[in-house]
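User: Can you predict the 3D structure for this chain?
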Amino acid sequence: MTTFILMAGSSSRWQRFNEHYDRLHLPKIKQFVDIYGMRLIDRTINQLNNLNIKPFISVQSEEVAKELNQKNTLIVGETLSPMHTIIKSEKLIYCSTFIIILLGDTVFSEDSLNVIFSEKDDEVTFFGNNYEIFASCFHRSFLKTVEATANKIGIRNKGKLRDLRWIHRFGKMPSLSLDEPQDRIEDENFIFISDWTRDIDHMLSLNRLMKDEDAKKELTNERR
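Assistant: Here is the predicted structure, written as structure tokens:
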């Protein structure tokens, strides 16, 4: 299978919410934030390497690629949404039959990755919790739907995985806020991840992660 970690976004929310935390010297790109002594993105890459998976990391510029300093980096050349990043990335390499998408701003538990990488039967499966869809597994043929959806949205920095899931379910863009409970209805194409796995959008979400005892136990144990 082909695995992509997406980090070609602008990190605008991260920067906007954290502008009052300059004294903490947080990185401008959220995937570079330190999680118990290791950058978030490096930790995800290491987890996948331990599963014998060599991911491709999609970034927006050579500057970010240089700071990332990892093999298999794909430079998409601009700030893009997850959907647009998928489309541009898959044109840079040959993709296998099944494709795994991971959001680069998510801290994954080992259990969540085991679930994600065990699902390869359906055309498309989404993975998430009450707040975010942070991963997807789909057949290569589903790329046509992804591209059609991205073209429909048009704006290249708009188009999250939850938008894609909504269109896959209903055949149209959502007409209500995606924070509404209807966005989180479970179905045969959605697997709920109920552990501490979470995306890091701002300092508050980072603090919640650091205060989670189960997360701390797993994350600090990896550094020993």
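The first helix runs from residue 12 to 17. The chain has one domain: 2-221.
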